[in-house]
């Protein structure tokens, strides 16, 4: 089910069947959008070259109002914008570069981003855009190297094709654009629209303060409709002194329409591109390239002003030399209809890899990442879309698991024991045991420099245990059917709060005592307010954690292992007071990390629910050489014993199916936060932390094996 609502936190409105089939819900903002676009364009007919493209019905639903066409918005959708780069990249398919200024697919450029780092003679005119191929930049020196940027050949391969262009708010011309009511002031990234790549050539530039000229590869683009003005353009615009080409194109320039001349050295012709300087050869391999009388062309023209392009060159709509590709029938525009991932009667469950993208807000045009597990929310206007994934059935989980097992048996043969995919014997020794409850234990003794740094125990329960109260099946069913109660969301993993902020690939929620990890602490909900499934999970994890520690201690003593300095392996079990719940979509993962925060003590247990996955362990500073790789199935509980294991190793987790959940419990040392500065970082007190880890009376209703909570 999907529905769209306004600024309220969550919407409970139910969409009618016809609305579910539609891919976009009309909002009052559509009328504002239509009026704003209408003021920017004329009613002229489409050129024949793109007439068929513009007549293709828009990809949004049939209730969407038909919008006027302008120079760059050739399909009639509004321009999109974003506050965060990841939101922009997640919400549409044409520009998905989290770094850099170019995005391509199949060796073809589909998106360009222009912002702070411009070069002399970069130009943004009414229907013409000139920018540079990025790369090879020395930011500190303010120059570029002599080599051709690696993306240049890709740009050349795209000449004649459409490309979506995004401008950043640090671009010198950004403040001169007429963004009107379509884009708010908090926009950092704004879609200018669809352009066509016309030509690529090499020049020499020399910005102020730089001693010597250096090469750049320029790109010229035209708006798709050159007979109309773009939505952001003001015809009376005064040239901006911060841009490189500050002199308006004059009538004198108009007389120099695409003059060309043959080079006396290389014998090839080049256009005269500058209005206020002599002709120069633009053949990049020629010894006289960009030279006048054997010296590089002066960056100032004969009139004392900076070099400026002729109007004829700017307006030339054909590639000077070589083949120019034709426009495709369907032209891109960044606006994407509000998708409904769970179509009525469909076969998808909501966490498939093709559904993992972001969305364009139909109300304000803001591009957003998916932040919440069960609904979308626009970061600008708070418009929401219900998006609760359908429960992923057990038979599909079993099919995924059996497919993995078949592949592993084929690859490993008799070496495959059901859990171990690979193991470096110089670092890992394996023991297998059968617990009193019938579970099979894979116990891995991890060594570094001939000392035991800790153990990793994988417990595989019997089918009857998985089906028992608080067993894996019970946990999975409850989480899937009451997903909203788990409050899953993605949190910042880099540059929190900035336009460059990146989110975790997986979804998280924290319960009990607050666990301070990552780039910014995430809030935690006290156990007294937690849904029952959190308490059920704690019962199972406590039972497995105690058993893992007991068997690890027994083997360490029997085999007379030499423990690493500072080992906590032989310490008593410390009751868990925290639970971190994670939800994974298809292809989600957690990269290399450790759980070695100073406030964590005791053992750490994780139950795997749903699709199978892999867990790898490596020694610190040797990520390219994992010492252990495990096949983790639904119901498996992995426990890491000894805090020194976190100091010497790292681990990562991948998902091999459509949906996986993991619940992990730790013991947070409350005494660590008796230092007021540490508690202040979390915005809490020691008393509040202690209270948040206390079990409610109802916790006594939940038991697993020999463990009952609150008893």
UniProtKB/TrEMBL annotation:
Query: What residue spans carry the region label Disordered?
Result: 1-63
Stretches assigned to the Fe2OG dioxygenase domain:
563-669
Q: Compositional bias (Polar residues) at which positions? A: 1-14, 51-62
The highest taxon in the source lineage is Eukaryota
**Residue ranges under compositional bias (Basic and acidic residues)?**
18-29
Task: Cite the InterPro entries for this sequence.
Answer: AlkB-like, AlkB-like_sf, Oxoglu/Fe-dep_dioxygenase_dom
What protein does this entry describe?
Fe2OG dioxygenase domain-containing protein
Q: Which organism is it from?
A: Cytospora mali
């Amino acid at each position: 089910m999907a529905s769209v609502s306004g600024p309220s936190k969550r919407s409970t409105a139910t969409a009618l069947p016809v609305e579910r089939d539609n891919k976009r819900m009309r909002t009052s903002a559509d009328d504002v959008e239509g009026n704003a676009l209408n003021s920017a364009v004329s009613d002229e007919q489409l050129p024949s070259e793109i007439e068929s493209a513009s007549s293709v019905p828009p990809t949004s639903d049939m209730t969407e109002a038909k919008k006027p066409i302008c120079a760059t918005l050739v399909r009639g959708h509004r321009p999109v914008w974003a506050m965060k780069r990841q939101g922009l990249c997640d919400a549409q398919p044409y520009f998905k570069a989290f770094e850099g200024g170019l995005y391509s697919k199949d060796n073809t450029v589909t998106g360009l981003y222009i912002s702070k780092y411009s070069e002399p003679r970069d130009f943004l005119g009414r229907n013409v855009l000139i920018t540079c191929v990025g790369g090879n930049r020395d930011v500190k020196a303010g120059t570029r190297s002599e080599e051709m940027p690696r993306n240049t050949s890709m740009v050349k391969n795209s000449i004649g094709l459409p490309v979506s262009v995004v401008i950043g708010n640090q671009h010198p011309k950004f403040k001169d654009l007429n963004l009107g009511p379509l884009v708010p002031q908090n926009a950092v990234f704004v879609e200018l629209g669809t352009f066509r790549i016309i030509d690529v050539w090499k020049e020499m530039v020399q910005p102020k303060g730089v001693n010597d000229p250096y090469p750049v590869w320029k790109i010229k683009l035209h708006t798709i409709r050159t007979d109309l003005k773009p939505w952001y353009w003001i015809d009376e615009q005064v040239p901006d002194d911060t841009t490189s080409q500050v002199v308006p194109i004059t009538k004198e320039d108009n007389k120099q329409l695409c003059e060309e001349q043959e080079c006396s050295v290389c014998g090839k012709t080049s256009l005269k591109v500058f209005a206020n300087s002599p002709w120069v050869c633009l053949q990049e391999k020629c010894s006289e390239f960009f030279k006048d009388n054997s010296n590089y062309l002066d960056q100032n023209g004969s009139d004392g002003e900076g070099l400026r392009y002729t109007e004829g060159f700017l307006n030339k709509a054909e590639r000077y030399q070589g083949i120019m590709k034709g426009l495709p029938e369907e032209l891109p525009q960044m606006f994407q209809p509000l998708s409904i991932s769970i179509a009525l009667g469909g076969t998808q469950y909501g966490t498939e890899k093709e559904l993992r993208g972001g969305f364009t807000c139909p109300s304000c045009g803001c591009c957003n990442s998916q932040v919440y597990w069960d609904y979308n929310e626009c970061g600008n206007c708070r418009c929401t879309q219900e998006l609760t994934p359908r429960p992923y059935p057990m038979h599909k989980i079993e099919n995924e698991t059996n497919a993995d097992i078949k592949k592993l048996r084929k690859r490993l043969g008799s070496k495959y024991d059901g859990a171990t995919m690979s193991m470096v014997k110089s670092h890992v020794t394996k023991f297998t045991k059968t617990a009193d409850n019938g579970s099979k234990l894979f116990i891995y003794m991890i060594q570094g420099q001939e000392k035991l740094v800790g153990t990793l125990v994988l417990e595989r329960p019997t089918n009857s245990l998985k089906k028992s109260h608080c067993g894996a099946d019970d946990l999975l069913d409850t989480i899937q059917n009451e997903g909203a109660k788990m409050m899953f969301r993605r949190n910042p993993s880099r540059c929190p709060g900035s336009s460059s902020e990146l989110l975790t690939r997986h979804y998280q929620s924290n319960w009990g005592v607050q666990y301070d990890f990552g780039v910014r602490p995430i809030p935690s909900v006290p156990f007294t307010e937690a849904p029952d499934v959190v308490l059920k999970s704690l019962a199972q994890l406590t039972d497995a954690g105690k058993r893992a520690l007991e068997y690890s201690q027994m083997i360490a003593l029997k085999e007379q292992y030499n423990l690493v300095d500072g080992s906590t392996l032989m310490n008593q079990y410390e009751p868990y007071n925290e639970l971190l719940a994670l939800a994974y979509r298809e292809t989600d993962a957690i990269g290399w990390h450790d759980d070695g925060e100073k406030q964590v003590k005791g053992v750490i247990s994780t139950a795997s629910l749903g699709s199978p996955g892999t867990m790898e362990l490596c020694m610190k500073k040797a990520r390219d050489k994992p010492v252990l790789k495990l096949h983790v199935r639904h119901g498996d509980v992995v426990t890491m014993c000894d805090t020194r294991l976190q100091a010497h190793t790292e681990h990562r987790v991948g998902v091999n199916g459509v949906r996986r959940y993991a619940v992990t419990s730790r013991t947070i040392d409350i005494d660590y936060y008796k230092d007021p500065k540490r508690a202040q970082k979390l915005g809490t007190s020691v008393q509040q932390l202690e209270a948040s880890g206390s079990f409610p009376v109802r916790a006594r209703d939940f038991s697993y094996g020999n463990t009952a909570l609150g008893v």
